[in-house]
Model the fold of this input.
Amino acid sequence: MSGTSLDGVDAALVDFSGASLSLLATHWLPYPDDLKTALLALHEPGPNELDQSCRLANRLADLYAETTHTVLAHAGVSSATVRAIGCHGQTVRHQPARGYTLQINNAARLAELTGITSVADFRSRDIAAGGQGAPLVPAFHARCFSAPHEYRVIVNIGGISNLTALPSEGHEYGPVRGWDCGPGNLLMDAWTRRCFGYDYDAGGAIAARGHIDAALLSRMLAHPFLSAPPPKSTGREDFSLDWLLTLIQTKVPPEDVLTTLTELTARGIADAIKQHCPGMQAAYLCGGGAHNQTLSTRLSALLPAARVEPTDRLGIAVDWVEAAAFAWLAKRTLEGKSGNLPAVTGAHGERILGAIYPA
Done:
């Protein structure tokens, strides 16, 4: 998995042979700074985009292969015993309203470099069926995290935040649902790099020093995506640093901007839960944002009737849920089974996702 945060590659080696999945090994490989810069540039129109995207796809495949070899070495597992790699690729454009999404990746090169069948391009089939192509992880959340006697919400806080509503058995509020809530870490990270020189606000320590700017927060919350009903998905196209800069109309201390951005992420998640998940009993956080204690504390305050805890409590550490999810989606593809939930993405029906590149 390599997500909207552009921080690096998460790899999880997953065994599905038992009654519940088993994480055998994990590894994270950070992106070099020049790769981050090039990928960010590709989010905007520019010269020679086609050549640049193909070259970056090759480079990403090399990193994915390196990560694969490393995680297999950690586990002492031969590549010959691995059934497939599920590789999300790196999103550079997500435009479901225009009928496309683009996750750059050279899955043929990945299969060649690893000798392992690779499954990629999971989102396009759902969009072709009229869906948003995202989020795709709710089906996996339902498989791993549902509970018969507790209405749970799984909150993934990556670059974009998204949630999965998992009503308990027989719950009056209906089936599994999920959607993007708005910005997760991407605006907080971009502002932290711009003003403080760090890749991210570790633990939310900088945000904890500032104050919420009510006027700025109000302008942020007016973004139409936040009030739109699900199913919905979003990305950097909607929530960019340029968008943020247009909203800072007076001189605001940098710490206060970061605190306000942290509140924006918390409010996007909490407001979605309050509006669409009545009766929810527990919110379980995953993704990089789950490490942000300031953000977690605000979510607990905004959701006083619910427990707010990491997915570690459910058996999968916060950093590896999405990587494990794409292993599961690859498994579904090879088995000829659907991987999307139409109630989540808005697709016309269940679809087998992904393109298979045999070893």
In short: The first helix runs from residue 33 to 42. The first strand starts at residue 8 and ends at 15. The radius of gyration is 20 Å. The CA atoms of residues 15 and 22 lie 5 Å apart.
